[in-house]
Amino acid sequence: xxxxxxxxxxxxxxxxxVKPSVGLSTPSxxxxxxxxxxxxxxxxxxxxxxxxxxxxxxxxxxxxxLEAPAFKVLPExxxxxxxxxxxxxxxxxxxxxxxxxxxxxxxxxxxxxxMKKFGEREDLVVVQTEFIxxxxxxxxxxxx
Length: 144
Known about the structure:
By secondary structure, the chain is α+β, with helices and mostly antiparallel strands. It has helices spanning 26-32, 43-53, 67-73, 75-85, 111-119; strands at 14-20, 90-95, 102-106, 124-130.
């Protein structure tokens, strides 16, 4: 592990987390992992890009080698991601870790339609939040 300074997070950048109620076994994801298809992008390059630019880096730097095997094990997770990618206003959409949560950076342009389609589903939990950025030693101060 290498200590880093916090990457820049532009104030007010929205984040939506969509968590399916279905579980996914991490061992089964790793069993389905094709090591010949792992990303060849240098992790230091990815880290440096995020540290310089923050969360709004090019989509090419959003890499999760566990997405493909997770989608193979649970195809409906891939379908959910594909639906979320189509939501106008989401600039980045990616599965978190070995699944099953999917995070979306940005904000749905039509929030009502988005919540009707995803937020009312019994098999999903939708959490809408935003990144915050505070000065050093201000983590526990009031944001207002």
